[in-house]
Structure formats: structure tokens, C-alpha cells
Amino acid sequence: MNFQVTVLKILVAYRDGFAVMADLKRDMAILATSGRDWADRTRRLAARVPDLDIWSQGLVERISGGWRLTSKGREVLEFMEARPSQEAIQVTPVSETTQPMAEQAPVSPLRQPADRAKRRRERRERRREARERARAKRLLVKEKAASDESTAI
């Protein structure tokens, strides 16, 4: 996860772009534990501005016990999130410094829907088994309590 991009994304969600430290920490914790999707997204956004430094570039200000997003910070975030136009992609010349296809690092294939369905099925099965174990344990506890009562009488 890219910390600086995450700060920009959190602040832009607040009214006037200002958030106190407690709110920033809470939101940061939520996003940091939200999984790989958020981490991948922030890395992609950070790649659009490789020399990003939210403090020295004046994108975020520290004021009144919190942080505030500046107008320049909003502009940079909009630039990072903007999709390149189709014309810009087609007009971009191939430089001589790019590596041939054979030398580029292989791209991992996207997960197929079948993989997702299989994981979902396995997760459901594990949950069902856990429910059955919990039910059986409750029954054993009830039976033991009933037998203890009958021996006490």
C-alpha cells in the first residue's frame, strides 16, 4: 500500500479536505487491512507520479491537529486517477529504450471466474462444517448438563 496516495484519497473524501488525526488513523487502518485490491490500486496510482512527496510538494498541510488537502493536492490526485485518452495511447511513439517483448517480465494471468467460484465453494463448505461442529458441541454440552442434573436428583 502506498501511504501517500492513501492519505490523498482519504482527505479528498472529507468535507473541505480536512481530517483530524484520529479519523485519519481509523480510515488508514481500515484501508490497510482491506486486502490486496487497495494496495494494488494505490501502487498503480503512485506509478503515475513516481516522485510523489505530499509534504514537500505542498499537497497536504498539517493544521489544527489534522491534515488538510490543498488545491494542488486535488489536482495531483485528479491527474493520477485520470485515464489516458485512446489518442494519447496510439500516438505515443515506441522508444528505442523499451525492451523487446521477449525480455520483458512475464505478466501473471488474471484469475479466472472458475477459480473464484472454486474458492467461494470451498469457503462455503468450511463455514458449513464449522456450523455443524458448533451445533454438535452445543448438543454435547446440553446432554452433559442434562445427565449432570439427572445424577444430582
Order of helices and strands: HEHHEEHHH
User: Structural class given helices, strands, pairing?
Assistant: mainly alpha
Question: Which runs of at least 5 residues are low in confidence (pLDDT < 50)?
Answer: none
What proportion of the residues form beta strands (DSSP E)? 5-15%
Which word captures the global form?
elongated
Q: Which helices and strands appear, and what pairs or packs with what?
A:
Elements: H1 3-13, E1 18-20, H2 21-32, H3 36-48, E2 60-63, E3 66-69, H4 71-81, H5 86-91, H6 113-152
Can you put this structure into words, describing what you see?
By secondary structure, this protein is mainly alpha-helical. It contains 6 helices and 3 strands; from the N terminus they run αβααββααα. The protein has helices at residues 3-13, 21-32, 36-48, 71-81, 86-91, 113-152; strands at 18-20, 60-63, 66-69. It has a 3-stranded antiparallel beta sheet. β2 and β3 form a beta hairpin.
Concise description?
Helix content is 61%, strand content 7%. It is built from 6 helices and 3 strands. It has helices at residues 3-13, 21-32, 36-48, 71-81, 86-91, 113-152, and strands at 18-20, 60-63, 66-69.
Q: Which terms summarize this structure?
A:
3-stranded antiparallel sheet
